[in-house]
Amino acid sequence: MNVKVVLTYKMEIYYYFTQFLLILLPLKTISAELWNQKRDIRSLEKREETRIRSDTSCIIKKDGYIYDLSRLSEKNYWLYNEIADLDLGNSLVFLLSICHPIKNVTSCGSKSGVCFATINHTLLGDSYDINYSVDDTVINHLDFTSGGQITKPYPEVTQEGSLKYVYENGGVCTKDNKSMKYKTELHLQCPLSSSKESGPILMSSPKCLFLFVWMTYAACPRVIQKTSDPCIITFMDSEYPLNLHSLHSKTFYKASGVNSFFEVNICGPVVNGSCTDPDNTAICDVSDPSNPTPIATSETISFGWQNDSLVLTYKSTTYSSLTNIHLHCDRTALTPKFFFQSKSENVYNFSVYAINICNPQSSDCVFEDKKLNVYDLRPLHKDEGNWGVIGRKSDNNVLFNLNVCGPINNEETDAMCPPGPVGACQASISPSGSRNLGYITSNPVANSVGTLTLIYTGGDSCKEGVPSSSTRITFICSDISYPPAFIEVTDTCEHLFEWHTPAACPVNMASSKDCEITDPLFGHNFDLNPLRNPSSDYYVSNGQQHFMINICGPLLKPCGQSSNNTAICSLQGGVSGGEVPAELVFNDGTLTMKFSNGAQGCGDDRWSSQILFLCSHDEKVTEGLQYIHADESSCVHHFLWYTKYVCPPHEVVECSVTDGDVFYDLSPLSDPNVNEIFMTSARDRKYVLNVCRSVIHSKESRCAYDAGACLIDISHKNKTLNLGKVSSGPYIEDGALKLKYVDGDKCNDTHFHSTVIEFDCTNEQYLSFPLLFAEDECLTLFKWSSVYACPQNISEAVETFKESKEANCTAVNSLTKYVFDLNGLKNETAYELKIRDGSLMLLSVCGAVNDSRCSALDSGVCFVSRDTSYSAGKWNQKLKFRNWNSYLEYEGGEKCSKGLKWSTRISFVCQDNERKLGPVLITIDEISCTYFVNWYAIEACERHIRCFAHSFERTYDLSPLTLHWKNYEVSDPSDENITYLINVCKPLNPVVGVNCPPGSSGCIIRKNRDPLGLGHPILNPNVGANESVHLMYTHGSDCPTHPGFHLSSRIIFVCNRSAGRGIPSYLRTTGDCQIHFEWQTSLVCPPPVEEGQCQIAFEAAKTNIDLIPLKSKGPYRVTYLDNVFLLNVCGGIVCDNSSAVCDSEGKSYGHTSQAKLRWENNALVLAFYGGDPCKEAFTGVRSTRIFFQCNPDSGLGFPEVDPIMHDLTCMAIFTWKTNLTCLESLYKSPETRPSVPERTQSTTTSNSTHYSPPEPQTIQDDTDMSEHTWISVLISVLVMASVVAASVYVVGRSSQGRRWYARAKRTFSRKGDQTFILDDHL
């Protein structure tokens, strides 16, 4: 029978006929089964993705109906596999496309809509599965023949529910010895209610002609809604109706601006508002409550799409006004949000954000609430069928169909819904009888009461006066899963449903008992089973408490009398700290493992343990496990474990580059444990980046796994944007060292986001961080000054590497595996220290003192007086590391006393950025005959802690509290014999005569007893409760009151605006030997409101920085390449009547009226906006950023072009070194800076490197000083006073002396800022 004739019958007759054909043809039966298998697989894959409408629209209109084939045209091609000969193993592979030629298959040609090829599967081997082996890889290796070209853009409607697509002029075909062209006919049919969709099925293949039939709901007709209502239009790029009556309010909306207030309504008048005449007022100005004024009426409404927003216009001739309301899509705005934007003459502009105008598409079903809890509604999505809900409506029982995370499925036998992206419907036996209860226009939203809400809007008309239906589903967290329940239909035709389901519970607290867990946001499975040690248990100790641990199973060795399920054992008495199975918990990027049911002995409770796992890209299995502390209030032992097994997939690239005879190595900036964070001054956006590696995944940086830099939008629920993937290492461009991340998230139709970091060499800034310099539309630019960006000589680096291979002068931190290498301190000449009695101390690091004045050839330390010298210890290269300090011990010097010999202990302390000390003789222990020397050097730095604490709202900077020349002294109110020394974020500065443990940031000074260390600066500050900031120092000296414990300290910074910088005070000592200090300071208070473009507050200094002196009568002229920039500040105008910056071509780069002065991570930035248009710019216009840098020697300074402008098109970047921004001059420092000379060259014949540090002294009690010593001191003071008095009298009597006195009197009697500046430079 001719299939063409069959296709003209009604679909039901045709359906049974095709089934009969398939029964008669076994090959066709096999073909259909194979197609069903492939179709099911492709259907699952397709529905897993979020369907976004293709740019290729395929919509046919005829006789008042619409046929939307767009979802069929989205694919490059549809695949059909036809078995041609089972015995020979041959099959035909067909590719078909709808409304466009086949894409990405070269051999099909550029115009073919159908092409086919033959596969002989027997030639591909026995393992080749004929059912599933045809994939893209196979397709790209086949030689296809065209089965017909696209000759018409759309299929032809043959009758209601039937379409025919003809492909002609295919490849050459021979029929009856005649050469012809292949032709294909595709018949698209709307399925019956009892039928399901199929894929394309080959029904017949007479020579040179292929006939396909495709049962698809896309061929079902949809009635075109004809209406003259101006509030019913169509969505952008879609034929679906957009019913704006859903935005109408029963009364009105409120919109406000600066001193402006309005009552507004859409698609209807304001009801019960302030404007009563006329009664059709759509907008009422109520800025003056005593005189409300109508400015628009509801009859003058019109709509139109402009770019991505819908513009509603009220044009009123009565009030001579024009009102534009810009409606923007916001899929989280469950209720419309109105804002007044501006008024220019009689033109009013408003903005509205609502879900109602969002183009229908599948919703985002994985989302977060304000507390960063993650929710996942995907388990409620149905690929087949729908959620059927029986409800009573108008005294009748009706069936509602719902779906979540995608449109309803029109596959039920007796419950059809309208076609399209509909989320809910009132079902019927046919699509034409059903009712649309709302398109998928919004994303689910978490409510403050703990429920979730999903709204579908823009449905069919409901009743007279309510032209649009909608649906609201409220999801309620429940341990038991219930089906959705219908509640009611409101007066506004909103259909309310409630759904109690576990899917409404936050998934960020997902747990597991089997050592594996899945990230619900990104889908990665974390497997901790490799951390199970099958040969021996882990030993963990903090020097005070000792534990044996194993995970993913019990301990291998018994724990005292504890259960065999014990996984954590305290070796003090064999006490269980918890048993397996443990609970593995995923908390939005953080993994913890909780062990319960430990031993009794913690009050009435049992001990438990918790391990916090943190991602470390380079940690091995056993190296990251640490014991933190015991929380006795909750009976929990806390452990920390850095490991690669909680890191998601990431990229690491080579981090060095060679340029001629030098190379650059940025590896020290590539941190496997911590990201760099840059927070904008408004605290609404956070940039997270790393160097040469993907960002470290954590709760604070939930970025894409492959992102080298990402943006976290705090103002929009911490949504992340991938700013570039890690793909290659650093490179040199125009002499600048740069690193680029590319192919981030899509920026526009043609580009993806990328990031460029430009590194500058500096020898002063070891603790550095990146600064955001500029943002174009798709490019983000950072600048980073660091010592690691300085070039290194290749030949010198090779020699250093050879020496390090011999393990000379190196030590390893066993916990972090960091290698301290002090070979850089080796020197051909000795280091010199002057001693008070006139002698010299000569020192050498890991080598002998090479100086003729020292008689002992093997001395590492030698004392030289006028005629003699003696050794204070023999040199060696055995660098040691203990108690977080690296040190050398030189022993076996000259005889001292009691049979002992002199020795020297040189402790190496991390170099301070602000102060270059080198070696300092701290004290002499004459009992043990030991000299104690602290050597401050860069080589002793394992890491500088960052003196910043980050919260989700802001960054706290404690660096202004760091002292570089002295220490903070804190008294103990309970013991006058105890004094505490502390510093902030760095080790204590040297105190001559007080031998605090080297490298400690805190120290206890006890009368007549040795000092004790309060811990080392290892941990960064963090934000605690009530926005306080905590800084903790750990691994201090042994606790004298609790054997086995180590001292530590915690500084708690508390906001007090009146305290200025503030000072620390003693708070308490805890039971686990931790000293607490409280520090009230304005530095941790919320930042002040910064206004203006010339003054900015510095809260800690209680004053302002004022840039007025930089304003010039004429513009500053800055040359850049062939261009000249003119600029001014503080309201100065250049080029025209409003520009603050322009170039020689007259292009404006920002206006004086659009300027912003702000702090960005300790950098003062002046930005000008609103320049001339530039399409490449992120904002669409040109702009300027001026970075002010403190330089006391630059005076007012001059702006200079920053080299980073090479990468920018629409933004000008300048740096301005000036003394006006030096914060040190704005307040008086609590420390007096002593005159300590820098390293200089000695004039002695030995030409040794010379230091003049403070003098050492032996600690003595005041009572040991003899009476004649006091008398000698008193006589000396009286003699000096007499000499000075006589000198002053003689000089004062002379005329020159009187002139000096008058000049000094005038100078020091001045008041104001000059006196402060003079004091600061003393």
UniProtKB/TrEMBL annotation:
Residues 1238-1251 have a biased composition (Polar residues). It holds the Pfam family CIMR. Its main location: membrane. Keywords: Disulfide bond, Membrane, Receptor, Signal, Transmembrane, Transmembrane helix, Transport. The chain crosses the membrane at residues 1270-1291. GO terms for biological process: lysosomal transport. Residues 56-222, 229-360, 363-507, 513-649, 653-792, 807-943, 945-1087, 1092-1224 form the MRH domain. InterPro entries: CIMR_rpt, Man6P_isomerase_rcpt-bd_dom_sf, MRH_dom. Signal peptide: none annotated. GO terms for cellular component: endosome membrane; Golgi membrane; trans-Golgi network. It is found in: Endomembrane system. Residues 1230-1262 are annotated as: Disordered. The keyword Disulfide bond applies. One of its GO terms (molecular function) is D-mannose binding. PANTHER family: MANNOSE 6-PHOSPHATE RECEPTOR-LIKE PROTEIN 1 (PTHR15071:SF0), MANNOSE-6-PHOSPHATE RECEPTOR FAMILY MEMBER (PTHR15071). This is Cation-independent mannose-6-phosphate receptor. It comes from Armadillidium nasatum. The gene is IGF2R_0.
